[in-house]
Specification:
The protein is α/β, with parallel strands linked by helices and 516 residues long. It has three domains: 28-195, P-loop containing nucleotide triphosphate hydrolases (Rossmann fold); 202-376, Rossmann fold, CATH 3.40.50; 409-515, no CATH class. It is built from 20 helices and 13 strands. The chain has helices at residues 28-44, 60-75, 86-98, 126-134, 197-202, 231-238, 241-254, 267-279, 293-305, 338-346, 366-370, 379-384, 386-392, 396-401, 409-414, 425-435, 440-457, 461-470, 472-486, 491-515, and strands at residues 50-53, 78-83, 103-106, 121-125, 143-148, 167-172, 190-193, 208-213, 260-264, 284-287, 310-314, 328-331, 357-362. The strands form two sheets. A seven-stranded parallel beta sheet has the order 3-4-2-5-6-1-7. Helix 10 links the parallel strand 12 (328-331) and strand 13. The longest helix has 25 residues, at 491-515. The N and C termini lie far apart (88 Å).
Length: 516
């Protein structure tokens, strides 16, 4: 066994976050990961590209900073660390400083490296370094180890040719390429899986997620060439007044007064969210990639210092952002990207002071698509067979077939004189077929039940029509269930069926009260 020489009580560099300058110590699970990685590096003798997986919040930067320090000491070679965002360059450099690793950040301003012999380690954005090496602006000498942060981004592959004689170590929370045509197992030979999310929760290194999901009709969303939902179709759905109202209500039910991050799939949506919350009197700001660096710093400073702050954003805070005081995460979008799903929720998973739990609101059927954030995932299988994972992602139609409508309590109270409010469309459809009836009898029976409910709880026709409007959510659900029975689930048919249902319901209500 190759042992990297880290004693159980070793401190691994200093962080000056506290006045007494107490050093930061590797947790036991981080030490185990460190040993496993070094063992594999030794066994393979640098002949394999390795990939290390650890959940967001598990301390990947801490681990690979210590790996860099040990590697430099024991191999007498230098280390290159690659990132895809400028913020990550700065964070990585500061962590390396804390580990006493003398490093240099290669920014766009660095045109050559006459002083490279003075440094043990370099940190660079992939595009900047690719440009310098492609233009032969400089050469990097004695690079023995290349560490790639957020390795699931496939932009790093273009640099591999410059480090053919170096050992490659990728680190990621999700070993699944962001480009389906470039699977990670084509660039990496072996995967080392770290602790699971649930394990880190049990050991109290990550906060527990309390998750609330809402069943949503996402049939209007379109999937783009990148395999995820398009911004345009998402904007049309999530800027709708009903969706904005649902978002606000879910916040008030579960997150009110808590520091909250809201993730959206479009700038227009995020701006709508900001306006909706301000009109409701909440302390909120909007952030996207059009904000200047100064504006971003000011907004994030406000967010950090404001206990009940709500920050609505678009994409920009999924990586390179760490604010452990976040108490609530709202996914005000749908995604088919497992990586993005974990990145968004991970922003709230850090333990902070008395914070041991955090809230997750899912407004995109994401939990139904991927499972709970803390659920077990076979990363080795996903790494080896990414196409099987992608093919197994549940379709929205499949998810929506399992929806079960539950009448909100405030609506149920308006129908308190009705003993029975349930009606099983699927069961009624099967019974109709057994009797030899035409399928449309199911809709007629359903309408008759709604007429009875309205009549039982209304004083007059106008009151009954108002009650009928409260049933729109259930009518939408019943129409969709009936369309599934007929295998006619096109949006246009469901819309026609719903509108026809409402028309017939109102006609029958008129007839009901005329008789009375």
């Amino acid at each position: 066994m190759y042992y990297c020489g880290l004693a159980a009580n070793d401190h691994i560099g200093m962080e000056d976050d506290s006045e007494n300058g107490v050093g930061k110590e590797l947790y036991d699970y981080q030490k185990k990961a460190l040993y496993r990685i070094f063992d594999r590096l030794h066994d393979d003798d640098g002949s394999s590209n390795l990939l290390f997986q650890l959940p967001t919040g598990g301390g990947k930067t801490v681990i690979f900073s210590e790996i860099a320090r040990r590697y430099i000491l024991e191999k007498n070679k230098k280390v290159m660390i690659l990132t895809h965002r400028i913020e990550l360059c700065g964070q990585t450099s500061r962590m390396l400083d804390a580990f006493t690793v003398k490093n240099k950040v290669i920014t766009s301003e660095v045109k050559d490296l006459p002083d490279q012999d003075e440094y043990q380690c370099f940190v660079a954005m992939v595009e900047t370094l690719n440009n310098r090496l492609s233009d032969e602006a400089f050469e990097l000498d004695n690079i023995g180890l290349v560490i790639i942060d957020e390795a699931h981004y496939n932009s790093f592959g273009k640099l591999f040719k410059f480090f053919a004689k170096s050992t490659i170590l990728g680190v990621t929370a999700t070993p699944l390429s962001s480009n389906v045509s470039l699977p990670m197992n084509e660039n990496y030979d072996r995967l080392i899986v770290g602790e699971s999310i649930q394990s880190l929760i049990d050991m109290q290194y990550l906060a527990k997620a309390n998750t609330y999901s809402y069943d949503l009709n996402l049939s209007s969303l379109n999937i783009g060439i990148n395999g995820d939902y398009t911004v345009r179709s998402s904007e049309e759905l999530y800027t709708d007044h009903a969706m904005q109202s649902r978002l606000l209500r879910s916040y008030e039910d579960h997150c009110k007064g808590k520091k909250t991050l809201i993730f959206n799939n479009g700038i227009k949506t995020s701006e709508y969210v900001c306006s909706t919350f301000r009109q409701a009197g909440y302390n909120i700001q909007h952030l996207d990639n059009k904000n200047t660096a100064a504006e971003r710093r000011e907004i994030l400073k406000w967010f950090k210092e404001t206990p009940d702050a709500v920050l609505t954003s678009v994409g920009i805070l999924t990586t390179g952002f760490d604010e452990p005081s976040v108490e609530s995460i709202i996914l005000n979008r749908a995604t088919r990207s497992l990586t993005l799903y974990f990145q968004m929720i991970g922003r709230g998973s850090r333990i902070f002071g008395k914070k041991k739990e955090f809230t997750v609101i899912d407004l995109g059927n994401n939990v139904a698509r991927f499972g709970l954030w803390e659920a077990y995932i076979n990363w080795e299988h996903i790494f080896r067979h990414p196409e099987m994972h992608l093919n197994s992602i549940r379709s929205d139609e499949e998810i929506q077939r399992e929806f079960r409508y539950k009448m909100p309590q405030e609506i149920r109270e308006r129908f308190n004189k009705s003993a029975v409010i349930d009606f099983d469309i699927s069961e009624a459809y099967e019974n109709a077929l057994k009797r030899g009836d035409r399928p449309k009898v199911v809709i007629e029976e359903s309408i008759d039940q709604h007429v009875k409910m309205c009549a039982e709880n209304a004083e007059d026709l106008w009151d009954a029509k108002d009650l009928a409007k409260l049933l729109e959510g259930e009518i939408e659900y019943r129409s969709r269930k009936y369309s599934h029975c007929l295998a006619k689930t096109t949006p246009s048919y469901v819309k026609w069926l719903r509108d026809e249902y409402m028309r017939k319901l109102n006609v029958k209500l008129i007839q009901e009260f005329q008789v009375v």
